[in-house]
């Protein structure tokens, strides 16, 4: 057994990395300059690719279901995405400046042992969201296959009814899953060019669909002027009800991406220089998200005009087969290429956003045996094992639970951002983040920072009555005030937890605030020259990363 475990240990690529241990491997140490390859345009490409996707396309449509009209929904989306942009940059400073990811980030916030709490939460979300986006990718693959062989849409279903999925959908999911596997082999530092290429292709595709729909309908379609007649939802009149509905729209927009906000340092740690993530993300996050949401609702509205016999076609994978069935060979070709573009966009959101993210977090959980690549494959396997199509079959409750996770993630993000920017004023001692013993200034009390735990609880508890009411099959009978607190979910939780954490850290300050390492222990800022190990003595190797590696053994 010990021999097998030894063979499974993560191998180092050179002597300067040190041996993988229970607390460190090459993927969770601060990244050296050679692995930091993302410039400002890389972040533009990343957000264009992850913004122009199926989830983004349907963002505004979900708000029409609560009684908002198109323009009210777009205002909510715009405000929500502006807040997302600020939160993304704020929580990305740690990665951009100290080049550590989410698993290590939380060691100085929650303590070296307390960090496992947010880490396990984020791993769970990565697995579930990987499965959900896998289904959307599979439906896009179905469009591509159906454009080549139209009979694929009517393929006889031989699966039992209790599987919760038809055969052609399952084939699409399995094809998408198989195509995803080799992409996970690519290290994140090499994502720069695929991001740029993919973002250009999906942007051209969605813009083409928007122009085509507007030209064919001769305007924006009936959904703009008659939303309630088409959606079947009574419109909200002015006043408090409309105001709170828009507030809910803002927070649900934030909630849909709150898991990505939480682990933003997993991406910004690849920034080639600290400012690379700032202006690019402040601009591209709201712009890309608002544009694709607008395209989605306008194209759906136009389709309702020229396909009146069809239900509202919110998702591209529902719209494209209808376009194909009403058109000729040209329509089939257009649907093929559009389907390919949406498949690519799903790769763009699911590989870096869920698989690689899950891989980074799993490497923080078991760094001795799991690196980013292994963790990504584990996430992918578990994402299929949970049968995500069954989760989406009961979509109303399941998706409500997922979006309501902002109740827990907002306070978590508030604690993290306030700790780094306000409590520590951006000063960290990197070597002590990899020391699971009382010698570390981040050991706190038995490895847990109770200030952070208390602050998180203070941000969560006011939102819990509304959360329980939202996810319950039957209302539990709470007052309107609790519901309004829940409507503020991410924003209120973030603010409360950040405030409490700063107060507790001021009254009971953590030890050694402002301390930094005297030496560049990991070669993070002045990367060591990599030469053959034989040219160095053991003491030379120790000197490169000795401070943390030696103390890990204590």
Q: What can you tell me about this protein's structure?
A:
The protein is mostly helical. 65% of the residues lie in helices and 0% in strands. The protein contains 25 helices and no strands. It has helices at 2-8, 40-51, 54-57, 59-64, 70-98, 102-110, 116-148, 167-183, 192-217, 227-231, 240-255, 258-262, 265-268, 278-306, 316-326, 329-365, 372-385, 388-393, 395-403, 406-423, 450-460, 464-471, 480-487, 489-507, 538-552. Helix 7 packs antiparallel against helix 16 (329-365) and helix 16 (329-365) crosses helix 17. The longest helix has 37 residues, at 329-365. The chain is globular. Mean pLDDT is 86; it is low at 529-554.
Give the helices and strands, then pairings.
Blueprint (H helix, E strand, L loop, with lengths): L1 H7 L31 H12 L2 H4 L1 H6 L5 H29 L3 H9 L5 H33 L18 H17 L8 H26 L9 H5 L8 H16 L2 H5 L2 H4 L9 H29 L9 H11 L2 H37 L6 H14 L2 H6 L1 H9 L2 H18 L26 H11 L3 H8 L8 H8 L1 H19 L30 H15 L2
Helix pairs in contact: 2-9, 2-14, 2-16, 5-11, 5-14, 6-7, 7-8, 7-15, 7-16, 7-17, 9-14, 9-16, 15-16, 16-17, 20-21, 20-24, 21-24, 22-23
């Amino acid at each position: 057994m010990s021999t097998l475990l030894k063979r499974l240990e993560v191998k180092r690529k050179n002597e300067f990395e040190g041996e993988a241990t229970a607390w460190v491997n090459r993927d969770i140490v601060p990244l050296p300059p050679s692995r930091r390859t993302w410039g400002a345009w890389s972040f533009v490409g990343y957000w264009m690719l992850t913004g122009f996707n199926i989830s983004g396309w349907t963002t505004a449509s979900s708000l029409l279901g609560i009684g908002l009209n198109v323009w009210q929904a777009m205002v909510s989306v715009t405000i929500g995405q502006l807040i997302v942009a600020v939160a993304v940059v704020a929580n990305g400073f740690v990665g951009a400046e100290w080049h550590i990811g989410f698993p290590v980030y939380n060691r100085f916030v929650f303590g070296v042992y307390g960090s496992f709490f947010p880490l396990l939460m984020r791993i769970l979300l990565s697995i579930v969201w990987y499965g959900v986006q896998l289904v959307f990718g599979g439906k896009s693959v179905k469009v591509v296959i159906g454009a080549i062989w139209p009979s694929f849409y009517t393929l006889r279903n031989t699966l039992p009814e209790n599987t919760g999925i038809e055969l052609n959908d399952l084939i699409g999911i399995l094809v998408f899953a198989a195509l995803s596997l080799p992409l996970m082999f690519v290290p994140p530092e090499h994502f720069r060019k695929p991001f740029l290429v993919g973002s250009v292709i999906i942007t051209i595709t969605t813009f083409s669909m928007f122009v085509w729909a507007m030209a064919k309908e001769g305007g924006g379609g009936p959904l703009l002027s008659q939303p309630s007649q088409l959606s079947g939802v009574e419109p909200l009149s002015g006043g408090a009800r409309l105001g709170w509905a828009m507030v809910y729209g803002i927070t649900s927009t934030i909630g849909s991406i709150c898991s990505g906000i939480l682990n933003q340092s997993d991406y910004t740690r690849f920034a080639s220089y600290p400012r690379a993530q700032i202006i690019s993300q402040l601009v591209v996050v709201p712009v890309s998200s608002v544009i694709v949401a607008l395209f989605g609702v306008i194209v759906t509205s136009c389709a309702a005009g020229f396909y009146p016999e069809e239900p509202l076609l919110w998702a591209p994978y529902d719209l494209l087969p209808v376009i194909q069935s009403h058109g000729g060979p040209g329509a089939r070709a257009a649907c093929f290429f559009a389907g390919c573009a949406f498949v690519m966009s799903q790769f763009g959101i699911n590989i870096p956003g869920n698989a690689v993210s899950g891989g980074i977090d799993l490497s923080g959980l078991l760094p001795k045996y799991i690196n980013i690549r292994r963790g990504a494959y584990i996430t992918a396997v578990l994402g299929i094992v949970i049968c995500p199509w069954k989760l989406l079959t009961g979509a109303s409750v399941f998706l409500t639970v997922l979006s309501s996770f902002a109740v827990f993630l907002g306070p978590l993000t508030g604690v993290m951002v306030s700790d780094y920017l306000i409590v520590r004023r951006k000063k960290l001692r990197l070597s002590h983040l990899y020391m699971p013993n009382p010698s570390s200034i981040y050991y706190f009390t038995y490895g847990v920072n109770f200030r952070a735990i208390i602050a998180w609880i203070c941000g969560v508890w006011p939102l819990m009555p509304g959360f329980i009411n939202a996810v319950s099959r039957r209302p539990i009978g709470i007052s309107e005030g609790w519901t309004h607190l829940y409507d503020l979910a991410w924003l209120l939780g973030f603010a409360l937890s950040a405030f409490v954490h700063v107060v507790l850290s001021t009254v009971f300050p953590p030890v050694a605030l402002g301390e930094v390492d005297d030496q560049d222990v990991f070669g993070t800022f002045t990367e060591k020259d990599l030469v053959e190990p034989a040219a160095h003595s053991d003491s030379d190797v120790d000197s490169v990363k000795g401070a943390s590696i030696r103390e890990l053994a204590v």
